[in-house]
Amino acid sequence: MGAQNSAIIVVMNELDEINEYLELGRINRLVIARKSDHGMVLASKREKEVLLPNAYVTDTMKEGDELEVFVYTDSEDRIVATTQKPLAMLGELAMMEVVGTTPYGAFVDWGLPKDLFVPKMFQKEPMRAGETHLVYVAYDKKTDRLVGTQKFEKLLERPEGSLKRNQEVELYFYDKTDLGYKAIVDNRFDGLVFHSEVFTPLSVGDRAKGYVKQVREDGKIDLLLRPIGKKSDEIAAKKVMDYLQNHKGMMPLNYKSDPERIKALLGLSRKNFKRALTKLIDAEKIEVKESGTYLKGNGKKIGKKDER
Given CB 3.0 to 4.6 Å as the disulfide criterion, which of 81, 135, 193, 253 pairs with 148? Predict the structure, then answer.
């Protein structure tokens, strides 16, 4: 190895953010080791190299620069890097359009030049060109490449004590059942929001913040779309105040209002709504009458001038 390449390796070892190894299907932070006829050769700390093809090389790139690239396999199953980002990376879901089919499977557009292959055995039902499906990006050990699958639930992890009650998590909703909406939790676990806990419009493919209600013995997670306790009351109270301030200080709801009416106007359960009213009454911000709920201060936002 020449002196110039040795210097590059020293720089890499001093940078903790540089990838130790190449990670297929993920964003890698690598260093430009040298230029070649076909593009830039990028390296990890362990000197594992990958080519960034000329199509993604810019005039400003030079040896020693750090780059964040997505690493995958090209049409000839060679490991390559790209500065483009796919719709979903390893362990993630996205809605993808079917762009072609073969007797062995289907190809879907995941935002990269090489389409993602979904083997027939990984499809829940035969895919057809032009259709859009929810696809999970997985690693196939048999072929040593990334593939798409619709049968991903068994690939998800069990929490094993890593989640706590009321912990905030990221949700991706992938199915609607008779019980509720199934979601991937933090791109790792399987969870469910029961229909009785949904107070705002929700669809398959939506992303949202959620909260852990409980982790069951089978590893599945019961989820909520609002936190438990004091924080939930604060969110509900804010929704009531926002509605009042945007509707001239009047809301056609009170303690006796129908749960479905409350859900439609505020996206709250009746229990949360009533607690919010009590909280705001105690704070002397609203008054509740038979005809509805009113913002104190003639419909204006409460400020220093209104408190005289």
Answer: 135
Please state whether the predicted TM-score (pTM) of the whole model is above 0.90: no
Listed residue (26, 31, 28, 132) closest to 86, CA to CA: 26
Sort strands 286-289 and 180-185 into parallel, antiparallel or unpaired: unpaired
Q: What is the CA radius of gyration of the chain?
A: 26
Residue-wise pLDDT for 48-73, tens only, equals 899 999 999 999 999 999 999 999 99
Q: Three-state SS across the chain?
A: CCHHHHHHHHHHHCCCCCCCCCCCCCEEEEEEEEEECCEEEEECCCCCEEEEEHHHCCCCCCCCCEEEEEEEECCCCCEEEECCCCCCCCCCEEEEEEEEEECCEEEEECCCCCCEEEEHHHCCCCCCCCCEEEEEEEEECCCCEEEEECCCHHHCCCCCCCCCCCCEEEEEEEEECCCEEEEEECCCEEEEEEHHHCCCCCCCCCEEEEEEEEECCCCCEEEECCCCCHHHHHHHHHHHHHHHHHCCCEECCCCCCCHHHHHHHHCCCHHHHHHHHHHHHHCCCEEEECCEEEECCCCCCCCCHHHC
Could you count the other beta carbons within 10 Å of the beta carbon of residue 106?
A: 26
- pLDDT tens digit string along 30-45? 999 999 999 999 999 8
- β-strand 221-224 against 189-194: which pairing, if any? parallel
Q: pLDDT tens-digit profile of 247-274?
A: 989 999 988 999 889 888 888 888 888 8
CB atoms near residue 257 (< 10 Å): 19
CA 166/CA 189 separation, integer angstroms:
16
